[in-house]
Amino acid sequence: MSEPVLIGEGMTGGYGTGADILHDCTIAVDAGEIAVIVGPNGAGKSTAMKAVFGMLTLRAGSVRLNGQDISGLSPQARVGRGMGFVPQTNNIFPSMSVAENLEMGAFIRRDDIRQTMEQIYTLFPILRDKRHQAAGELSGGQRQQVAVGRALMTKPSVLMLDEPTAGVSPIVMDELFDRIIEVARTGIPILMVEQNARQALAIADKGYVLVQGANRFTDTGAALLANPEVRNSFLGG
Amino acid sequence: MIRVENLHKHFGGFHAVDGATLDIAPGSITGLIGPNGAGKTTLFNVIAGVLKPTSGRVLMEGEDISGLPPHALFHRGLLRTFQIAHEFHSMTVRENLMMVPPRQAGEDLWNAWFHRGRVAEEDRQIHARADEVLEFLTIDHIADEKAGQISGGQKKLLELGRTMMTDARIVFLDEVGAGVNRTLLNTIADAILRLNRERGYTFVVIEHDMDFIGRICGPVICMAEGKVLAQGTLEDIKANEQVIEAYLGTGLKNQTNKEVGHV
Amino acid sequence: MSVNPRNILLFGLMGMALLLVAVLQSPTLALTILNMSLISAIMALGVNMQWGYAGLFNVGIMGFTAVGGLAVVLVAQPPVPEAWRAGGFGTLFGLLIGVGTVMAAVALWRRMAPGRGRALALVAVLVAGFALNRYFFVPAVDAIEAVDPATTGYLGGLGLPVVLAWPVGAVFAAAAAWLVGKVSLGLRSDYLAIATLGISEIIIAVMKNESWLARGVKNVSGLPRPVPQPVDMQAAPWVQSLADGLGWSLAQTASIVVMLGYAGLFTLVLGGLIWLAEKALNSPWGRMMRAIRDNETAARAMGKDVTRRHLTIFVLGSAVCGLGGAMMVTLDGQLNPGTYEPLRFTFLVWVMVIVGGSGNNWGAVLGGFVVWFLWVQVEPAGRFVMELVTAGMAEGDLKTHLLNSAAHMRLLTMGVAMLLVLRFSPRGLIPER
Amino acid sequence: QEVKFGVILGFTGPIESLTPHMADSAELAFKEISDSGLFLDGQTITPVRADSTCVDSSAATAAAERLITSDGIVGIMGPDCSGVTMAVLQNVAMANGVPLISPSATSPGFTTTESNGLFFRTAPSDARQGAVMADVLMERGITSVAVTYTNNDYGKGLSDAFAESYAAAGGSITINAPHEDGKGDYSAEVGALASAGGDLLVVFGYSDQGGAGIMINAIESGAFDTFAMGDGMYSDALLETIGSDLNGTIGTVPWSEGEGTEAFAAFATENGVNAESSYTRESYDAAALLALAAQAAGEATSAGIAANILNVANAPGEPIMPGELAKGLEILAAGGEIDYVGATNVELIGPGEAAGTYREYIVEDGAFTTVSFR
Amino acid sequence: MDILNALITLANFVLFPAITYGSQLALGALGVTLIYGILRFSNFAHGDTMAFGTMVTILITWALQGAGVSFGVLPTALLALPVGIAATVVYLLVTDRVVYRFYRRQKVKPVVLVMVSLGVMFITNGVVRLIIGPGDQRFDDGARFIFSVSQFRAYTGMEEGLALRTTQGLTVITALIVMAALFWFLNRTRTGKSMRAYSDNEDLALLSGINPDRVVQVTWILAATLAAVAGVLYGLDKGFRPFTYFQLLLPIFAAAIVGGLGSPMGAIAGGYVIAFAEMGITYAWKRVLTHLLPDSLAPEGLVQLMSVDYKFAVSFALLVVVLIFRPTGLFRGRSV
Ligand SMILES: Nc1ncnc2c1ncn2[C@@H]1O[C@H](COP(=O)(O)OP(=O)(O)OP(=O)(O)O)[C@@H](O)[C@H]1O
Ligand SMILES: Nc1ncnc2c1ncn2[C@@H]1O[C@H](COP(=O)(O)OP(=O)(O)OP(=O)(O)O)[C@@H](O)[C@H]1O
Ligand SMILES: [Mg+2]
Ligand SMILES: [Mg+2]
């Protein structure tokens, strides 16, 4: 089997000089695939995402993109390689306007961004109304939309989302998932952490259950959904 | 319990809350739903005294409480959590909880200096209570971590934990569920129900997870564009065309809900 | 302080440094440094209360120390009866009118409905009050200042024991802080900073220019002392026999005895303050203050009256600074408004707090010692460095120029020392837990 | 063998631009004495500098303590600013019995300060200069002036003294406004002064501090074109910066009728020391006095120096000019008497007070021209 | 009644000086506000940075003058300015590399950076004095006046005079150009926007592909340019002495804060507010009123709101009042 497009393999590490949070954790996603990470709070899901994005130093393991080892690259170099990331918290530029937030998403792009911007506005109509407002003044769910919009603006070749649907209303969540499926269809690998796990696993090609920094279950989304143990312990029944 | 009368809150020219009128019955668990930007959090902020209303008033048990500062409302038993977690980042998780109980003798300098026995005794009790709460929320293992360094979901739990440290009368929960593991959320739902039943807390809950709303809420209020759009039981609301159009949609979420069903 | 080997080591090292000064330079120098270090530690403690506990960015320390110093003159100097006769009544009356006007204005502002009427009434009250005040105040002040301007020209003090001035200094500073706090505590971070800085400049401007109060820029010197002067000590038989016994010179013995006297007094005060501060910080009160510092909005929502607590801690911290200011003026034996400069009295104290470790009382104390030690000892150190640098150079203009500029090595060395300390412990020498 | 003297001046801080020249002048005197080989049977003098900071009494105290108890100096030339001078005197010098001669503490307050005979100064008290300036103005028929003074004890004391004498003589002061040194912008002060008006502007400040700033600004904005200046303003640098606009300016400066000052200027220039900066003359004299007093005592001890300062400074005896210190040493060694005249016509009235004559000058063709001595 | 003379008096003693001084403060405050806005700390070394830039410019000016180069009616220092700017840029970049970067990586609290900048201030302080000494340096040459009081009087035949110094004119013009350029840069260019993004959320900027090192560099370069320009203009106008530059820090900060920290617009407004407050509130209106009122009503006293003793006190009091009504400054600055 050929190697997945993006893989964080055997990742072990923690914040600064603190204790290890990830223990030999492996996460991978292939072209056109949606991979969803679920798990209890504090399991290390966000940490795993950050590790893949180079925001903490690994004590063991490696991250590879298209077969190339990128473990040593800085986050912005990874952005340069086409990786896009929406962090869980602090994911907007609060004092810049919504439009500027989106522009910043397209910072590394040199082509015309207006069309992408239009697409974002169509996806999240509320953002069009608010485009001149400072993002810090938005409601929780609106901020989340800005955050996802910013990442989409990059036109990434790999998209990583940390709880993109936290706090967004059901209708927007549906749209968002639809859009994510659409993006994945174009061949882009998508790695996503979700607590709205049942909905997320329903669209996932691959699911990871992370517990205490280690892989507990790995399977297709549907299989995990069907697994009663997973459902009871991690998906709320 | 709480009555909101024709409340307006404007930011510049924007009407975030635009003439909302609603009643929260004592002893109820009321769900507050509505699209992003409907004005739910703003409404909470006005009720909790963080923002001053542009016009209109808020009554608590018949008394006008509009414009009272947050700490005064707290002492009347009105508690709230924040949608974007507001932890005390340089304090440990346990300390985050221990600072909550009101009128601690040790918060008076005089006592801290000259009645240390009494203060220590009281602090022991608060410590024990904090540990109970932590255990309940399944975060007792991080009790001594700095709150700034815990995971996003853990912060939300801490946010909820604070309301459990004191005897509240009415608690406003702003999306406690967002980012919280669903299994744990069920436990939280049980806790809310228990607090409601055993201690008579009134709850107002903002949430986008319909399972959660369905599980605990009696009356549900749906806001949109700063106004109350619909009101009733969850079933009524779910059937409301306007609500479906503005908020629920007909997509994946509702399908999976049906597929998976209630537990 | 958690009795932590590292902290004990740090204090031990500091003690060693002072001991080295005593051996290599002179014991009296070591004691001079020690005494000012004790006072610096007190000031740092005061600032630490405001910043470390509550996150209040007070950059008006200078003003509060100066007010504390003013108390020494007003309490301990003998009164000047001629001046009182010349204009004592007019001055007091004028001041009363001033206070009355402000109170009337505030009351008016509160009572009347907003609108043009209120504004007009306010202006009228202020203008009338100002005119009345000038009418009584100016001639009285002129009369006072005319009384032997070279040596007095002011009202003098109450002639009470000087140690009494310390608590009074604290009270003065507390009163000033209360006013300042009422006005400016609504401001955040650097805005509060510049407001306090501005107010402290105003305080200094008043002290410089109102010479009826404490002679203004003409300074008051020869203030009473809590401990006899070394010169007088030299006459005491027991000091003489002590000197004989130790084999030291009489002057040195007397100086050391006197300095130890000050050191004792200061240590007593500092010890008491630390005890209070430690007990406060490690109590639920301290926890509440830290919560307020971390997140005001959440603290409010958790029922804490942030405004009131801020005011309390601001007043307390400033009072401690005022106490330190009064002690310093006592040690100097003079009040000299011209010396109050932000760099020395505000920023240096801040450096002490940050280098020591904000939020930690022992850190602030250690910071006071370390930074004051540096402040005094960088001068010879700077010269030494410069001599070292130029040692290998050929005689010439450059060498002379450098040697002549050696004085400027003082601040340079200070900067380097500060950066080094912060480099190795960015959170301070004894960080908050 | 070497004898150490302290040179404590504010090398950093508000008057840091004056102090290097002052220190140079003092060290010039020390060097002159050392080089003569006549000092106490061939002993040499090592000056030790320390920073008074001008404003930080505690730092100055520590510095003086260090010089006295660690470096072992026997006398201090300095400090400069009155506040630190008082602190050093009362907290360190008196405790150790070390005499100090300040070149620049001109506050009248020092006249009456109890110092156990340890405090001297070579700059006369401001009280007298104020009276002299009032006379000069009245004699020229100038009856209405605006006054600005540097806001410290020197400026305030001088302007108080001047105001008193001037009013007594029938003159009127339109405005008496302080200015702060060390700032760059004096437009506000000049605006107020200009508005108040007056026949001329009296400036009691420092020639390379606010005083100069005020004058330049006043000239350029046309607020005033004639000035009267106190001693702090006398300097060639001012002539150079302001140029011909300074013509017609009158002023007073402590000066001896005789060649003392010129002698110093020549001697200093020859040795590469700036003689024209404020208080350089006083500094030279202070240093010379310390050394001469040691010579007179026959030993380099603090007590000996303190006891002999008045002796060498005042008549009777052979007058000693700048550059003639060797001669003074010789006479003293031989048991003779000297009357040190120095650069400023030194005449000490007692501890704490200097007399001295003032020179009234007027600026003509870009040079200070003597009018009379008072 | 003589409105024209009254106006000219006012212009000569209040308006012209205040506008000049205000421009100088504004340039200084822009540097402070920029560093605050983007690197998020109050840089106490800014005054001494200005001194550094000016010092280099002066040294070059002297060299040019020595070589007989001049710039006609304009001061030679303008020719030397680019070198001064370059040297300041290098100095700040080196400081950043050696000092600030470490603390930035450690993510220390802003107040620690403030203290670090105090350390840098001490060092710069020493370096400048070691090189050029603490004394006064005047380095303006060329024509001193665009028109002087006597020229003005001769030309207009008015009683009151008005002077406009070359340096005043230069200051205002340069300040305008620099401000416009800065605005264009920050609001219109990609780099400018990325700087604002970085200041808003450093981590996220990283995730958007913004190179933080570059942002920091550009910030220091801008700050250095502003500092050198402000310092040289101030020095040309009022003479250079290291200590006065250090003292300038206070009004510069006051300006930046009154305007609202982090807001360039605010820094400019703040500069003028502080300057006009210092000039205006202690101004004695006697002379102006004498022109305006009939002789019988001519004022006896000085008609002064406050005596000049309280010049600084007054401007600070004004500052406090402004902050009470607008807690984050006139232009809604930010706060860390
Ligand atoms: N400080 C502010 N300034 C301007 N507009 C604001 C401000 N705060 C909120 N708003 C606007 O008010 C509206 C209501 O916001 P609010 O936070 O109350 O929404 P919400 O119902 O809680 O939404 P969500 O479900 O996304 O949390 C939003 O459109 C938001 O943009
Ligand atoms: N900045 C940090 N510094 C130190 N420890 C951290 C930091 N952030 C998180 N942690 C710790 O790492 C562990 C894993 O955190 P992480 O954020 O990866 O959890 P998560 O799985 O994303 O949880 P959630 O669903 O609640 O977001 C937690 O126990 C937390 O305490
Ligand atoms: Mg997470
Ligand atoms: Mg909300």
UniProtKB/TrEMBL annotation, chain A:
GO biological process, one term: L-amino acid transport
Listed SUPFAM superfamilies: P-loop containing nucleoside triphosphate hydrolases
Family matches, as Pfam families: ABC_tran (PF00005)
Keywords, ordered alphabetically: Amino-acid transport, ATP-binding, Nucleotide-binding, Transport
Superkingdom assignment: Bacteria
Domain ABC transporter positions: 6-237
MF-aspect GO terms: ATP binding; ATP hydrolysis activity; branched-chain amino acid transmembrane transporter activity
Family named by the database record: Belongs to the ABC transporter superfamily.
PANTHER family named among the record's database cross-references: HIGH-AFFINITY BRANCHED-CHAIN AMINO ACID TRANSPORT ATP-BINDING PROTEIN LIVF
Identification of the protein by name: Amino acid/amide ABC transporter ATP-binding protein 2, HAAT family
Source organism (scientific name): Roseicitreum antarcticum
Source species taxonomy: Bacteria, Pseudomonadati, Pseudomonadota, Alphaproteobacteria, Rhodobacterales
UniProtKB/TrEMBL annotation, chain B:
InterPro entries, sorted: AAA+_ATPase (IPR003593), ABC_AA/LPS_Transport (IPR051120), ABC_transporter-like_ATP-bd (IPR003439), ABC_transporter-like_CS (IPR017871), BCA_ABC_TP_C (IPR032823), P-loop_NTPase (IPR027417)
This protein's GO CC annotations: plasma membrane
Domain ABC transporter: 2-250
Coiled coil (residue ranges): none
Keyword ATP-binding: yes
Superkingdom to which the source organism belongs: Bacteria
CDD domains for this protein: ABC_Mj1267_LivG_branched
Record GO terms (molecular function): ATP binding; ATP hydrolysis activity
Pfam families: ABC_tran (PF00005), BCA_ABC_TP_C (PF12399)
Keyword annotations from UniProtKB, A to Z: ATP-binding, Nucleotide-binding, Transport
Protein name: Amino acid/amide ABC transporter ATP-binding protein 1, HAAT family (TC 3.A.1.4.-)
Biological source species: Roseicitreum antarcticum
TrEMBL record, chain C:
Cellular compartment(s): Cell membrane
Keywords: Cell membrane, Membrane, Transmembrane, Transmembrane helix
A Pfam family recorded for this sequence: BPD_transp_2
GO-annotated cellular components: plasma membrane
Topology of the protein relative to the lipid bilayer: Multi-pass membrane protein
GO terms assigned for molecular function: branched-chain amino acid transmembrane transporter activity
Name recorded for this polypeptide: Amino acid/amide ABC transporter membrane protein 2, HAAT family (TC 3.A.1.4.-)
Record keyword Plastid present: no
Source domain of life: Bacteria
Transmembrane segments: 7-24, 30-49, 56-76, 88-108, 120-138, 158-179, 191-207, 256-277, 310-329, 349-376
TrEMBL record, chain E:
Topology in the lipid bilayer: Multi-pass membrane protein
Key words, A-Z: Amino-acid transport, Cell inner membrane, Cell membrane, Membrane, Transmembrane, Transmembrane helix, Transport
Entry superkingdom: Bacteria
Keyword Magnesium (UniProt): no
Residues passing through the membrane, by range: 6-39, 51-73, 79-99, 111-132, 168-186, 215-236, 305-325
One Gene Ontology MF term: L-phenylalanine transmembrane transporter activity
Any Pfam family hit: BPD_transp_2
Subcellular location: Cell membrane
InterPro entries (alphabetical): ABC_transp_permease, BCAA_transport_permease
One GO cellular component, as annotated: plasma membrane
GO biological process: D-alanine transmembrane transport; L-alanine transport; L-isoleucine import across plasma membrane
Family: Belongs to the binding-protein-dependent transport system permease family. LivHM subfamily.
Protein name: Amino acid/amide ABC transporter membrane protein 1, HAAT family
Lineage: Bacteria, Pseudomonadati, Pseudomonadota, Alphaproteobacteria, Rhodobacterales
